Hints:
The complex is a heterodimer. Chain A is α+β, with helices and mostly antiparallel strands. Helices cover about 15% and strands about 35% of the residues of chain A. Chain A contains 1 helix and 10 strands, in the order H-E-E-E-E-E-E-E-E-E-E. Chain A has one helix spanning about 5-30, and strands spanning about 60-65, 65-75, 75-80, 85-90, 95-100, 105-110, 115-120, 125-130, 135-140, 155-160. In chain A, the strands form 2 sheets. In chain A, strands 1, 2, 3, 5 and 8 form a 5-stranded mixed sheet that branches. In chain A, strand 6 and strand 7 form a beta hairpin. The relative contact order of chain A is 0.17. Chain B has one domain: Cytochrome C Oxidase, Chain A (Up-down Bundle). Helices cover about 70% and strands about 0% of the residues of chain B. The relative contact order of chain B is 0.13. Chain B contains 15 helices and no strands. Chains A and B meet through helix 1, strand 7 and strand 9 of A and helix 2, helix 6, helix 7, helix 8 and helix 9 of B.
Amino acid sequence: MHLHKYEKLWLAFGISSLVLFLVIVGVNAFVAGNQPPSSAKTVDPGAVEVTAPFDQPGLKKIGDNEYQLVVVTSAFSFDVGTQDKVVEIPKGATVHIVATTKDVVHGFEIAGTNANMMLEPGHISEATQVFRNEGEFTLLCNEYCGSGHHLMHAKIKVVDQS
Amino acid sequence: MRETIAKVDKKDAKLALAHMIVAFTALFLGGICGLLQVLVRSGKMELPAGIGYYQLLTAHGVLLALILTTFFIIGFQFAGMSRTAGTLSDKTRLAGWIGFWTMTIGTAITTFYILTGEASVLYTFYAPLQAHVGFYIGLALVVVGSWIAGFAMFVHYAKWKKQHPGQNGPLLSFMIVVNMALWLIASLGVAATVLLQFIPWSLGWTENINVLVSRTLFWYFGHPLVYFWLLPAYMIWYVVIPKVIGGKIFSDSLARMSFILFLFFSVPVGFHHQLTEPGIDPFWKYIQVVLTLMVVIPSLMTAFSMFAMFERFGRSKGASSLFGWLRFLPWKDARFLVPFIGMIAFIPGGAGGIINASHQLNQVVHNTIWVTGHFHLTIATTVILTFFGAAYWLIPHLTGRTFTNQLNQLAIVQAVVWSIGMLIMSGAMHWAGLYGAPRRSSFSLYGNSSQAADWIPYQIAQAVGGTMLFLGILLVLYIVVQLLWFAPKGDEEFPIGETEEHAEKTPLFFDKWWLWIIIVVVLILLAYTIPFAHMIEQAPPGSPGYRNLC
Lengths: 162, 550
């Protein structure tokens, strides 16, 4: 099959850019460890409330400026362990998020950060986020979960404690 | 200089037109839903009479993404088959009608359950949200009907091949066969999840559903679906546009090559819709990211072919400067201009697609309204404007009427309204998505969050753009109604391009269908077997159905 000279150049340029791009993405994923949230852990979706760590939702200190945030979702709320659905996180803290759902699929998105993952019944979702900037961030459901989907939210307050 | 015009047989024309009528009816209904959605989300309007936002959203997605596209594509392809591979046999045409009625009855059933509020599960119907079983049965009928149509097209192509030994199938027919093969292989996934998982579960025969398996089967289908929309647009670009502008097809064999590459790399790629999901090893996500981005290659080939064809045409008319050839393109012909705008929209559309599919970057935009902005550029601009541009010659060709100058003017106005409306709506969606505004959500203040307050101006912009798009729909419907029933009688051409005189002969190996299918199956098995086995082996307890809908 005949290819025009310019077409060869065009495809060579395009394909090399593509290969370079995939290599960068791959190195970022497998060498630097920046993989999308892909936890393999499971949980019985009917027994979430009696299974650790989901029996005690909320923020727990687990190290020097390091925390675990356990979140249990259901239509149409985020249980973040507080009555007012506000979580206070010290500025600069590394937070390991562990979340799941008791019923349907939900989305877990902290707007303005890269914490963005799907929550599926029976599966545990995990992500780590460092909160470098002070301010209020909205935790919201970004996967349709029923009639009250858009009313499902909580608040993350990043506070300077120094 | 009017040559005698090759006409699609009258009976075949009727079959194709029946599909067009359902397609444009779906456009009207789905468009009304879209208008109401952008108005609600601007925060300035509430829905009357107990209509739910998510009910509208379900209807919008099903009617436009599934019904409008599938009916238009199958109608166009029957006409294209008849035009390039000869009049359909009575049996093939009958199969076409059986397919049509199966799909139409399916559409009616699904729409009924959406309208009664028992199926507000959106067009992706993610378990364990559970709709009335009728919703799933209707969708299954649409898929089955499309299979019948697909087989009718295969039989017709095989018959042509038998009558013309040692020849390549006509280019347009060849492309149609690729597209229907792609559709058949892909829709096996959605058929499997609907028939084996959703229908028994929503009838109560099975108590629980494996959610991750159902989503994986859906997206095994869901991404090839977008290529099933795109390939007919490419057919129009490769085969029809050269004739419309008065030029020649750049290369027959490259066109076939790019279609075969699309067949290979359209299916084993569904994980890029599931990048942020638990239960799938990131290694397999990355493998499918690589396979996904392989479609960049045939897309680059297509872009080259188009602009090479435009330039050669302009130079043959005497253009000599670097971009002088642009002047010679028929800018005032809607049959060219409208699809051309679609081509241009595919540049940002494709770039956005690369962002969405790229493993880590997906986390920034996943399920934000950026994604909605993305596919309103690709499907709702690139593909739909190309389909509109094709309808302007196809419908009058089939009805024996003419696309008058006046209608041509109106079609150009329509495309301008559409482009500006989409620039505003899709642009605002992209920006708001980068700030975190979610997709598929009704208007919400999110507990008076200041972030959500920042999204509202963009949502108002979406309402402005969306309203313009609705006007665009009314305009195109006016033109289509004219072309169906009222425009003056006459002969409108079904343009089919020819290759350059000195073009190399297309090699014969393109019709090695079994080889192509084996390669596709191997790629699918490679990409899916191990992660899919994991989903079944390591499955958590299944989920009962939830009907917290409105």
